[in-house]
Amino acid sequence: MTTFPNYRVAAVQASPVMLDLDATVDKTCRLVDEAAAGGAKLIAFPEAFIPGYPWWIWMGDTNYGMKYYIDLYKNAVEIPGLAVQKLSAAARRNGVYFCVSVTEKDGGSLYLTQLWFDPDGNLIGKHRKLKATNAEKTIWGDGDGSMMPVFETELGNLGGLQCWEHMLPLNIAAMASMNEQVHVASWPIGLPYDGHLFGVEPCVTASRYYAMSNQVFCLVSSQIWTQEQCDRICETEEQKQFMQPGHGFARIIGPNGKDIGNSLEHDEEGIIYADIDLEQLIPGKFLIDSAGHYSTPGFLSLSFDRTEHKPIKHIGSGAQKVIGYDSIQYDQDVLVK
Q1: Is 163 an annotated catalytic residue?
Q2: Are 97 and 43 a contacting pair, CB within 8 Å?
């Protein structure tokens, strides 16, 4: 970049309308309007925000969870589709970038996907979680390197990962190789148990380490757990006690690992704002550029395959009948059926 802009960013801490696509999309658009009215030019949303994180996978067996999987499937985001049109319109009317994590239905399968919108309302790309975590594998398929973008924009180089992707060193190295500058870290809640690997402290620590290791501003967005979500999917007393209301941890972290901007209580819906100056990244890059002068390519290196990997390739005259998409760049015209 030849310029290093100053601008306001926002990280959302909120609950979805559990397993309700239309209501959660509408809520997302209202939050975009609110954050933009607060001066934000880039807005980050929590993991699996649309239409909610599938918490039943941690609460019981398949017999209990299947009806909720069916509801999730019916309320997943499709591209193109009305949900994407509404999100696109929110970006366009506010003139902002935003990144929202959704359950995406592509073909017959579901994927955990960050969708990126630009100020003109274009869906400029998406990132699918490369590997679902533990029980999440019963819900979401895998992404690949073709859907691990960093976008070169007037606001800097923008990218994102979801949840425990921030724990994997090779993910961190791959993102560093694209000179990311502002990062969206999408998380669900932190489980309310001291010492739990899915607790608030490990999630915040991973985000803080990411900000420092890659020298980026990190927009940490998280959900909160609510009684409404509990009422929707919890059937037994044990399930109702699994989580208590709250346990959000949204924040904005500078490249020095320090929190910047305002703060929220763990059970409070709201928006974290911070004013960032990309020129502040330069001293950090002087000290550490893990994909550049601070790397050791002579004996430690990463092969980053950014080609699309599909299990079935259509060849021949019928191929044009297959509905597809460009995994990096989306034209606004394809968003409207």
Answers
A1: yes
A2: yes
Tokens at residue 170, please? 């090779």
In the set 29, 99, 105, 163, the catalytic residue is 163
CATH number of the CATH domain containing 320: 3.60.110.10
Please tell me which residue in 129, 165, 218, 234 is annotated as part of the active site.
Answer: 129
Q: How far apart are CA 102 and CA 86, in angstroms?
A: 14
- Quote the pTM value: 0.93
Which residue in 41, 47, 165, 234 is the catalytic one?
47
Q: Which domain holds residue 146?
A: 6-335
Cβ atoms of residues 10 and 44 within 8 Å: yes
State the average pLDDT over residues 33-52. 98
pLDDT at 228 over 70: yes
